[in-house]
Design brief:
Blueprint lengths: L8 E5 H4 L13 E6 L7 E5 L3 E2 L2 E2 L6 E2 L5 E7 L1 E12 L2 E16 L3 E4 L4 E6 L5 E5 L16 E2 L1 H5 L5 E6 L2 E6 L5 E6 L4 E2 L3
Parallel strand pairs: 9-16, 15-17
Antiparallel strand pairs: 1-2, 2-3, 3-12, 4-5, 6-13, 7-10, 7-12, 8-9, 8-11, 14-15
């Protein structure tokens, strides 16, 4: 018998995304992406819109996992990037403004990316069609709805207005721009993307 209080579908609205955009005042689509959550018995699907908001490509909000949790994302349509970052820890406490390691991973239809425990992640659509992912994240129960699943911590991302880098369109090419709120990024793997200073 299914849990009728579980909400399997949620759109991520522009108003919510303003919290993590490079330019919070830029106009954008009403919905940035769509989430369909299958709980423990089905896989989860995320569909990202195309385009940019203030020059920044459409992306997911980004989050860190609560507890020791990993997952895999399979990309079934489109192209873009996965951004992953692991925070510096002091006395076992993650420091939201200091990054131990940052990675940008190019993705296309047919690729998969492993989301390792301890790494925050978000997805960026740099293509001209929807970017569609399927993942095996365990979402289940009335306290784990699609819009804000209980296994995900969004607050550290919100406090820093996004990840350590934003993916923006410069001269028709995806380019990384540093998020100036971060004090330190120790190790980087930009996956072949150009990096701009502003």
């Amino acid at each position: 018998m299914s849990d009728m209080s579980f909400e399997p579908f949620a759109p991520r609205l522009h108003e919510k995304m303003k919290e993590v955009l490079m330019n919070k005042d830029a106009s954008g689509p009403a919905v940035h992406y769509y989430m369909i959550r299958g709980g423990s018995e089905k896989r989860n699907i995320t569909v990202l819109e195309t385009g940019t908001v203030g020059g920044e490509y459409i992306k997911t909000y980004g989050h860190y996992h609560v507890g020791d949790l990993d997952e895999t994302y399979w990309f079934i349509e489109g192209e873009g990037f996965v951004l992953q970052q692991r925070l510096v820890e002091e006395a076992g406490v993650p420091q939201p403004d200091r990054v131990e390691e940052f990675k940008a991973i190019r993705v296309t239809k047919g690729t998969s990316v492993y989301m390792q425990s301890g790494y925050g992640h978000l997805i960026v659509n740099t293509g001209s069609v929807w970017l569609v992912t399927v993942d095996d994240s365990p979402v289940q129960g009335s306290n784990d709805s699609a819009s804000m699943p209980g296994h995900a911590d969004y607050e550290m991302v919100k406090s820093m207005r996004g990840f350590a880098y934003y993916v923006v369109e410069k001269n028709g090419t995806p380019t990384l721009v540093p998020n100036k709120l971060y004090k330190e990024v120790r190790k980087t793997d930009f996956g072949g993307i150009a990096v701009a200073e502003n």
